[in-house]
Every structure is written in structure tokens, then in C-alpha cells.
Specification:
The chain folds into 2 domains: 119 residues, Rossmann fold (3-Layer(aba) Sandwich); 243 residues, 3-Layer(aba) Sandwich (Rossmann fold). By secondary structure, it is of the alpha/beta class. It contains 14 helices and 13 strands.
Length: 403
């Protein structure tokens, strides 16, 4: 007999006989999950889901059918906000990703869906999102430079190190260098970039777990780096599906994903921004850079709306400026709530770390640069009064965690 106190119901909405059969097989042997099948398309659903008392809803739909997308929106509005919805679709592209992210679905998987991926997705959806010990979703951070030479790559690399070594966040961490033309993450860490984009750019589905693992470089402290050999003479705009696949895999197999974005805005940039938990724009304390930062903030707002709340890190920051230089009050006036804080200027320390291909803490673990950055990235660890304008935790939708 089923234990009603521990058994959870999952409702499946689908007219695909084969998928229904495989889903029944996937959950058939589970004593803790009761599968309810509703053999209708999503646009035929009325009160069935409300009567099912489902803890999770799986919706199999045609993402190219506007009527079904609108019906999914209606279904989600009627459901309680704490009931996760997992979407299954055959037509998976950048437009689909953006729509589903904006709808705040719990996960979305592409057919054919493996039993392992479906079960894993449902188990994650059933977990309490407020229970951090049980939360298996990746934390995704993205760094975007406001102009050239502001130190965005250094901020990204050091953030990955901070997250990797932190007691709470310190699990598995991957740096994804999306600057395919001028990326420097691998070089900053004296590593060989192994990601061969040419091998997958015309067929993103080839990039599976095994190939992804082969193309990763590993730092001695355990941080993984996905970086491609730079091609300074070749300006290429890669298919959005390739970038999405890269980040899907990184989010599926790492607890922390740190993205180093290029200055150039590509067709896939919007999708990446919508998939992050925290977006940092790295700037420096000059009038031209701060003005461009304002324009960049407006561009992010236009592209992602309220889904993304960017924060600005002012690198090489001095709290007090001589003479008539830019003061902190000027920065706060220009950036407002977006100002996260400043990171100290230690030119010689940072350059030595880059030249030696090591992390800053390997040279001087108590540097002001690390103290400032850690207080911004992990404000809950910062001592009272150490840094003003700490970063707020953002609930951004993650990339799907499909294996």
C-alpha cells in the first residue's frame, strides 16, 4: 500500500503514446512517485490538473504551435506558483529557450528524452528550493566588460576560485570562456584550451557528456575551464544552439558556472543573460567607462527586462580620489542601485599572477583585491561594515540540466 505521506504525484500531459509508455516505465518501480497520465494536448486541458493534486507537472507540447504555448501560459497561471512545470518538446531552439525561461518553467528537455534525464529533472523539481543542501541547481554567474582592459576575465577567474573554495558553494566549478576570438581564461591560468568548436558548431547534439569532458581543461585546484583556442583573425558568430548546449552541459554537471562574456553583443547574448543567476558588469573609474556602463545597463534592461538585475563592479578602485577626481558619491549617483562595490587596485599583484599563470591567493591570500571581491560575490560572508552596496541574491532561471 502506498504511503500517502511520502508518495508524490506527478502529472503527465501528453498525446505521445511512446513517451507516455516510457515515462510509465521510468516511474513504475518507484514507491515514492505516483504517475498520473492525462492523455490530452495542453490546449485541451481544463480542470484535470487541479483535480490531480500533482506536486510536479510534465507537459509534452509542440513549441512551434503558438496555441499550445498560450495554453501552457494559461495552465501555469491556474496552477499554484509552488507547483513546478517541466516542458518536453521536439522543437528546441533559441526562441523556445527564451520563451520558456520567461515563463519560469522548472526545466525543459528535448525529445528524445532519456529516462535518466527525465527522472533527474523530476527529482530536482520535487526538492524544496529553499533547502540549499538539497538544491542541485547550478549557480550561474556571468561577467561582462564595460570596455576593454577593465579586468573582467580576472574578476571571473577569481570569482570561480572564491566559489570553489567557499564552505557553502565549494563543490564543483566550471569557467566557460565565451570570448571565442580574444578569450584569455586558459592563458591566465597557464592551461591549454581544448574546446574545438569546429567539431560541434554544425551539429550541437554531438556535444554530449563524454565529449564535453574531453574538451575541458582542469586547473590543479580542481576548477574546470572550457575555452577554445583564440582566433584573432576570425570574427565568427556561432550558432545560438551551440552556446546553449555548452551551458546546458556545464549547468548539468557543475554546481557553479562562471561565464566570461565578450564585449561584442552576439545573437546568443540575450539567452545567456536570461539564464544567469547573477550578472556582473565590470567597469573602471573613468568618465568614458562609466558612461558606457550606463548604456550597457540600459541595453541589458532592454534585452532581458526585469528577468536580469545587473550589478556593476568598479575594478582598480580607490575609495578616495585626489583633487577633482571621481568620488564614490559620483559613482553611486551614476550607477544607483546597480553599484555593487569597488575592487582595490593592485597592479603588481594581478600582473604577477597573470604572468605566472596562477590564482591571486597563491601569491597573497590576504590581498585587498580578494577581500573586496569576496565581499561582493559572497556578501553573506562579509564582515559588518566591510563593504557597502553588497550584491543581492538573484533568482534567475537556470539553464536546463539535461545530461
Amino acid at each position: 500500500m502506498e504511503n500517502k505521506n511520502t508518495t508524490k504525484s506527478i502529472a503527465l500531459v501528453s498525446i505521445d503514446k511512446s513517451f507516455i509508455s516510457s515515462t510509465k516505465t521510468a516511474f513504475g518501480s518507484s514507491d515514492s512517485i505516483h504517475l498520473i497520465t492525462i492523455e490530452k494536448s495542453v490546449d485541451q486541458i481544463h480542470g484535470e490538473l487541479h483535480n490531480s493534486e500533482a506536486a510536479v507537472v510534465i507537459v509534452d507540447l509542440d513549441a512551434t504551435n503558438l496555441n499550445e504555448i498560450e495554453s501552457l501560459q494559461t495552465v501555469m497561471k491556474r496552477l499554484s506558483s509552488d507547483i513546478p512545470v517541466i516542458v518536453i518538446t521536439e522543437q528546441f531552439n533559441a526562441v523556445t529557450v527564451r520563451v520558456l525561461i520567461q515563463m519560469h518553467v522548472a526545466d525543459f528537455l528535448e525529445k528524445p528524452v532519456t529516462t535518466t534525464d527525465l527522472v533527474r529533472s523530476c527529482i530536482r523539481a520535487l526538492k524544496d528550493p529553499n533547502d540549499q543542501e538539497e538544491n542541485s541547481e547550478a549557480n550561474i554567474y556571468a561577467f561582462m566588460p564595460a570596455s576593454g582592459g577593465v579586468g573582467s576575465t580576472t574578476m571571473a577567474i577569481q570569482t570561480a576560485s572564491i566559489l570553489h573554495s567557499d564552505a557553502t558553494h565549494g563543490k564543483s566549478t566550471c569557467i566557460v570562456d565565451l570570448n571565442f576570438q580574444h578569450g584569455a581564461c586558459a592563458e591566465y591560468l597557464d592551461m591549454e584550451p581544448r574546446f574545438d568548436i569546429a567539431e560541434v558548431e554544425n551539429n550541437p547534439d554531438r556535444l554530449d557528456r563524454q565529449l564535453f569532458e574531453v574538451m575541458l581543461s582542469r586547473h590543479q585546484n580542481g576548477i574546470a575551464v572550457l575555452a577554445a583556442p583564440v582566433s584573432p583573425m576570425e570574427m565568427r558568430s556561432f550558432n545560438t544552439d551551440v552556446v546553449i548546449k555548452i551551458l546546458d552541459l556545464a549547468a548539468a554537471y557543475f554546481d557553479n558556472v562562471v561565464i566570461d562574456l565578450p564585449r561584442t553583443w552576439f545573437p546568443w547574448t540575450n539567452t545567456v543573460l536570461l539564464g544567469t543567476n547573477k550578472l556582473f558588469i565590470v567597469a573602471e573609474k573613468t568618465v568614458p567607462c562609466l558612461r558606457h556602463t550606463q548604456r550597457l545597463l540600459e541595453a541589458v534592461k532592454s534585452a532581458a527586462g526585469k528577468e536580469v538585475s545587473p550589478k556593476v563592479i568598479v575594478n582598480r578602485y580607490a575609495a578616495k580620489s585626489r583633487g577633482s577626481g571621481i568620488q564614490r558619491s559620483d559613482i553611486e549617483e551614476v550607477l544607483g542601485e546597480h553599484f555593487a562595490g569597488g575592487v582595490a587596485n593592485d597592479y603588481f599583484l594581478v600582473n604577477e599572477a597573470i604572468d605566472r599563470g596562477v590564482l591571486l591567493e597563491e601569491i597573497r591570500g590576504d590581498s585587498q583585491v580578494l577581500k573586496n571581491l569576496k565581499a561582493i560575490i559572497l556578501p553573506e560572508r562579509a564582515e559588518a561594515g566591510q563593504v557597502r552596496n553588497g550584491i543581492l541574491s538573484l533568482p534567475g532561471r537556470l539553464f536546463r540540466k539535461a545530461g
